[in-house]
Amino acid sequence: MATEPGTSPTLRWPELVWSGDVGPLECVGVRDESHDVKTFLLKSVEPAIFRYDPGQFITLTCEIGGVSVSRCYTLSSTPTRPDRAAITAKRHPGGVVSRHLHETLKPGSRLDATGPSGAFSLVRSTARKVALFAGGSGITPMMSMSRYIDDLALDLDVVFVQSARTPADLLFRRELDAMAARRAGFEVRYACDRPDVERTWAGITGYLSLDLLGRVLPDLLEREVYCCGPAPYMGNVRAILSELAFDMARYHEESFQIEEPPSTPPQMESATDDVPYFAIEFANAGKTIRAKSTDTILTAARAAGIPLPSSCKRGLCGTCKTLKLSGDVEMNHLGGIRKSDIDKGFILACCSRPLSDLKLR
Ligand code: FES
């Protein structure tokens, strides 16, 4: 950019705040976090800063094999450093998008994204004592919150419990240990199901249990609890809290799981059911189903055994975005799709109901 005579170039942050409508993101760095986890550092291609709550996510859309696929990734970075954002992704063996990111995303690569979105963040709470439970990849929102607390030197009493299969699967250990060393009121506990590979393992061994948490987190009932991880992990934490008669109004969880369709048979039409039905053709799957006008397309597809990716099921994350080739829908989304995508014919299957026969890609 040319500089006016008599002035020097500035390194001021741009005034524009990034959202999906501002334009794509560019990868500016890749860091190995473990044997199967990488952090991707991102900037806005248009000069813009990032503004989000620690714990929020963005939705990436990638072209993979000629098909556009969307997935949510919580930002692992902190909004206190607004010029860059980061996602941390584990390479899942069957994960189409995570494999694509690990294999192709390099400095200079561009990514289509929407967001930031989501309500999972401690910024909405006034609690002074907090417990963060992270299982596996569920560590990303907890890292964002911890970095935020650390950068702003917030006066919070935090206990961070990270669970992983083995010590080699623990993430950000050095950074968390450094935070715990320099901050009064920030403690970290590590729990591994199989710590045997590390002979000097001094952390917790085995799954979290009532007895174990009673020993390592005796004041759990006094804390606001944030939990993120695989469904069984969060179910276990919830079960422990319920045994403790914990006030679940102070429990918050987040999970992005790409769900497989259940093996339940398709719903049959009832003779007394006077709700209109429409035909929905899934062109790629080569299947046509009948769906009630009151059912979302996602519900109808899953009931018929057609796999559609989904996550939030509330029109928020964009994971279920699909192209409508013909027909009309009623879509009530919560910001998970851009106007420009709607104009191109995309819909969110989780919050769209048929108003006519439909053909989807
Ligand atoms: S599943 Fe999140 S927008 Fe549809």
Give a verbal description of the structure.
- By secondary structure, the chain is α/β, with parallel strands linked by helices.
- It folds into three domains: 20-117, Translation factors (Elongation Factor Tu (Ef-tu), domain 3), CATH 2.40.30.10; 122-254, 3-Layer(aba) Sandwich (Rossmann fold), CATH 3.40.50; 277-360, Ubiquitin-like (UB roll) (Roll).
- It has seven helices and 19 strands.
- The strands form four sheets. Strands 4-3-6-1-2-5 form a six-stranded antiparallel β-sheet, covered by helices on one side. A six-stranded parallel β-sheet has the order 10-9-8-7-11-12, sandwiched between helices.
- The longest helix is centred in the middle third of the chain and has 13 residues, at 139-151.
- The protein is globular.
- The two termini are 43 Å apart.
- Bound molecules: FE2/S2 (inorganic) cluster (FES).
- FE2/S2 (inorganic) cluster (FES) binds at residues 310-313, 315-320, 336, 348, 350.
Gyration radius (Cα, Å) is 22 Å
Give the names of the bound compounds.
FE2/S2 (inorganic) cluster
Structural domains: how many: 3
Q: Give the number of DSSP strands.
A: 19
Low-confidence stretches: 258-272
> What is the CATH class of the largest domain?
Alpha Beta
Helical residues, percent: 10-25%
As an assembly, this protein is single chain
What structural class do you assign from the helix and strand content?
alpha/beta
Q: Terminal Cα separation, in Å?
A: 43 Å
**Elements, N to C (H/E):** EEEEEHEEHEHEEHEHEEEHEEHEEE
CATH architecture verdict of the largest domain: 3-Layer(aba) Sandwich
Q: Outline, from the CA principal axes?
A: globular
Sheet with most strands: 6 strands, antiparallel
